[in-house]
Amino acid sequence: VGKPAVVNLSLGTHAGPHDGTSPFDRMADQLQGAGRLLVGSSGNFGLSDFHIRHIFTGETDAPLSTFLDFYYGVSTYGYGDVEVWADADMQFEAKLFAYNTFNKEVVAEATIDLNTTEAQQISLGNKVSGTITAAYEISPYNNKPHLLLSAALTGMRTNHQVGITIVPKKAGKVDIWADNIYIGLTSNDIEGFTAPTRDATIAEIGGTAKRILT
Fold this sequence. Notes:
By secondary structure, the protein is mostly beta strands. The protein has helices spanning about 25-30, 75, and strands at about 5-10, 35-40, 50-55, 65-70, 80-85, 90-100, 105-110, 120, 130-140, 145-155, 160-170, 170-180, 185. Strand 6 (about 90-100) and strand 7 form a beta hairpin. The protein is globular and about 65 Å long. It starts with a strand and ends in a 28-residue tail after the last strand.
């Protein structure tokens, strides 16, 4: 009808690179112009523990390990997604592990093959039932390494938890975002494991596109 239009998007997700290069953000930026404005929420996640940012200075740095925090318990709802994004020239190795929090030891470990873009189903021995599907790519939108983990766990032994380890192969920044719906991140206050930070909790859609008013 040729009239100016303002659209409010009170939506948010943590699936994506959080840098404005996702297909949705690029589309949103292109839609705006004279008489067209998109407004998006930044999310309500400032007090949530689901993000870790770590800068590796080189391949000799210690690995980063953290636990997946299933908000509703694995036996109730052991589903959810976790994403790893790294700088465009960053290289790393990724492992999933099962950990006995009572004995303070890793009881199962699996290295994710980052030399294929085929989805991989990872099992973690008899302490954890179900699988975690891993898929890796170099994103065509920003040339960044991108690892997606989709959990489908149905049970876990008492005093056990699942986690992820990032081993640097080159200097660079790594971000880990859990979906913050079913999964968060935690160190369990165990020495050697990384606790979440709260410095990048603005959601995709509202806070990351270049031209959306947040």
